[in-house]
Write a structure and sequence with these properties.
single chain, 438 residues, alpha+beta, Phosphorylase Kinase, domain 1, Transferase(Phosphotransferase), domain 1, TATA-Binding Protein, six-stranded antiparallel sheet, 14 helices, 17 strands, ATP-binding, Prot_kinase_dom
């Protein structure tokens, strides 16, 4: 079993040889780059070591020139934004993003066990082992869907294994988010790998991201159990016809319960295809399954820092907050996102925290935790939680990030929309006011 991570969708970013690391062997004095792990259209992935901690990481070096030339700016920005919001034991973690004039570097969790594809290519798995990996996959996919993220390219090549042989979903380059859904409630971009793509994607009439991910999970489960693809043919159109018809056969060793589950996963009708909630209740799936639960109380102030006390912004934050690679997008009114809101302020962190405390007290919202760079507010018996993080942008400006977690209730929504949010608007920095004052 090769102890490397090969990230599908990454790619070559220069005229360098295929085995040599980039010229910045010591990246920002923080990471020592080692061997090449994989490459694709506009990036390369290297194994690296954190100089201070000795921790192994994977670094994806993306060529800015090739990204801009190929029109992939939105893809890179979306991948950063998506990976930034995902924290799950079975999803590859993005630690930070660094940048030079020519490259963007994704610093990611290193999956020592390599691709699941390499392991399954040596032979099919037992039913128990297939179940174990499928349970981990559904846990990660269900979490993504709950965060409004749809992977759209799930396949064994994008499923990595850590040193304990646990699953790690990777490569969110083709992922979509809820904001991309059109007025008809569907996604329309044709993407994915042919053998794993759902029939409704091929129909080009629009599709639901969650349902196509479930189809791909069905293909993966079939492959784990059988060692081969359910729909496969050298002629692409013949294979597509098989996918449309749901024309596949189970190997003789497949148990009745597993046959029933795979049949529901590979239901060609997306309306009747099994959902994540239904999968969790399936008797075959549920054997030995331990659900990973995420509660509001697990959302701690330290999550805004990931254990890093540095309150300045790096390229990770700049790219996430701005439009494309132009950081002028930072200097605008608050930007709505599914994780909350962000705005630039000219007030000091101390002043911002004082104002937050004042507003919270007036609205009967408790300040649960407070630091010089952030605060945690809670109300409605824990059903309403706001995390406020303050990040230094320049000597005079900071970015204030508000992460909101609330139950779907009129009361909690009213606290945010009608009370807290309007009162925080006085902290927003407006460049035009500086111009008028000069």
């Amino acid at each position: 079993m090769p102890e490397i991570e090969v990230v599908a969708g990454a790619g070559d970013d220069s005229g360098e040889s295929s085995s040599s690391p980039p010229t910045e062997v010591n990246l920002f004095g923080k990471y020592e780059l080692g061997r090449l792990l994989g490459h694709g259209a506009f990036a390369k992935v290297y194994h690296a070591r954190n100089v201070d901690t000795g921790q192994s990481v994977a670094i994806k070096a993306v060529s800015k020139q090739k990204v801009l030339k190929g029109g992939f700016t939105a893809h890179v920005k979306r991948e950063i934004s998506i990976m930034r919001r995902l924290r799950h034991p079975h999803i590859v973690k993005l630690y930070e993003v660094l940048a030079t004039k020519t490259k963007i570097y994704f610093i990611m969790e290193f999956a020592k066990g390599g691709e699941l594809f390499a392991k399954i290519s040596k032979g099919r798995f037992s039913e128990d082992l297939s179940r174990r990996y499928f349970q981990q996959l559904i846990s990660a996919v269900g979490y993504c869907h709950s965060r409004g993220v749809f992977h759209r390219d799930l396949k064994p090549e994008n499923l990595l294994l850590d040193e304990n042989w646990n699953l790690k979903v990777s490569d969110f380059g083709l992922s979509a988010v809820t904001e991309q859904v059109r007025p008809d409630g569907l996604l329309h971009t044709l993407c994915g790998t042919p053998a794993y793509v759902a029939p409704e994607v091929l129909a080009k009439k629009g599709y639901e991201g969650a349902k196509v991910d479930i189809w791909s999970c069905g293909i993966i489960l079939f492959v784990l159990n059988s060692g081969y693809l359910p729909f496969n043919d050298q002629n692409l159109m013949v294979m597509y016809r098989k996918i449309y018809k749901g024309d596949f056969r189970f190997p003789r060793w497949t148990s009745p319960d597993l046959r029933r589950l795979i049949s529901r996963l590979l239901d060609t009708n997306p309306e009747t295809r099994i959902t994540v909630d239904e999968i969790l209740k399936d008797p075959w799936f549920g054997k030995g399954y331990e659900e990973i639960k995420f509660h509001f109380e697990d959302f701690e102030l330290k999550d805004l820092r990931d254990g890093d006390n540095d309150t300045s912004l790096n390229a990770f934050d700049l790219i996430s907050f701005s439009s494309g690679f132009d950081i002028s997008g930072l200097f605008s009114k608050s930007e709505i996102s599914d994780c909350g809101e962000r705005f630039v302020s000219a007030e000091t962190p101390e002043t911002i925290i004082e104002k937050v405390e004042e507003i919270a007290k007036a609205e009967n919202v408790a300040v649960m935790e407070k630091k010089s760079w952030g605060a945690k507010l809670a109300g409605e018996n824990g059903n309403f939680v706001v995390m406020i993080g303050i990040y230094r942008l320049t000597e005079k400006l900071v970015v204030v990030e508000l992460n909101l977690r609330q139950r779907e209730s009129e009361c909690s929504q009213r606290i945010w929309k009608d009370k807290l949010r309007p009162q925080l608007s006085c902290l927003i920095y407006r460049p035009e006011e500086d111009v008028a004052g000069n």
